[in-house]
């Protein structure tokens, strides 16, 4: 069985129930055996290891939290640790998993009818069908709630979607894409499940990325794409419903940031013990120890924050601002940690051979997606002052 994480300095993992910890260790062992050895290669080639999807499915963790699916429900703490563990191995694989289970499955679970949930969730849980989530647009990111240009026009029992989406993870090979579009009749944002090979739907891989290169992000074009009424998510009737999905998944990104921090810290720690300069391991130098302790402090503080957030989620008392603060804080601390780790490795920090270069690049994507630091700051600022600074 896989060992504990070196970076969990305060042993937060001990807060998990015994059976949940066994699940976490099983996933950790899989990631270390199957994902870590190939992560750099697939990242460098900007390809996704599709052969691992069946093995991910065999872990039996996709969609565990949804009431519609059988099996014991994990705590939010276990769900968080799983997100952290995946990012600790490879942020690209963590993003693939988060898009599929959190955004795509989460949209169907939260906004779909009973028939829709029964139709799609079991196959998605078994990872026989892979999902994507199409919200961001070429000219709309932070302002997509009010500036969404993708439209949906009803014609009898069919909806006609027109527009474009950008940065859509998994979209090049997804079986189902949850597309958000503005109803031309009432002006409200609604959700639609667009199935693979639907006429009028095109997904083109985004090339030349410098972060999350294994994630197959796509530009999506919707040109008279006809979707049956049966594929309109019945509970998605305004952007407030969309925001509810993002609130839940935003906390997952904070957990991913902690995973990246712990990986960067552990890489730097191992390097400091092995790398010699001036006849001694560089870990004996005061400035190097200072960097390591700064990294550990950031990771530990962030892990404490997301652990408490998970407890609030399980208690049913967490709010938008709780997820927003965690996402903003943890991703900012993550940027510092990967930078310090790169600094400690010096020139070796910019080549994939030592792993840290991949985490430095991937951190930039985590810092931006699921709400920028600035947008999340305004969510928290509105909560603490009672005054909105949104334009």
TrEMBL record:
Residues 18-128 form the Acyl-CoA dehydrogenase/oxidase N-terminal domain. One of its GO terms (molecular function) is oxidoreductase activity. SUPFAM superfamilies: Acyl-CoA dehydrogenase C-terminal domain-like, Acyl-CoA dehydrogenase NM domain-like. Residues 132-225 form the Acyl-CoA oxidase/dehydrogenase middle domain. Keywords: FAD, Flavoprotein, Oxidoreductase. The keyword Oxidoreductase applies. Residues 245-384 form the Acyl-CoA dehydrogenase/oxidase C-terminal domain. Its cofactor is FAD. Belongs to the acyl-CoA dehydrogenase family. This is Acyl-CoA dehydrogenase. It comes from Nonomuraea coxensis DSM 45129.
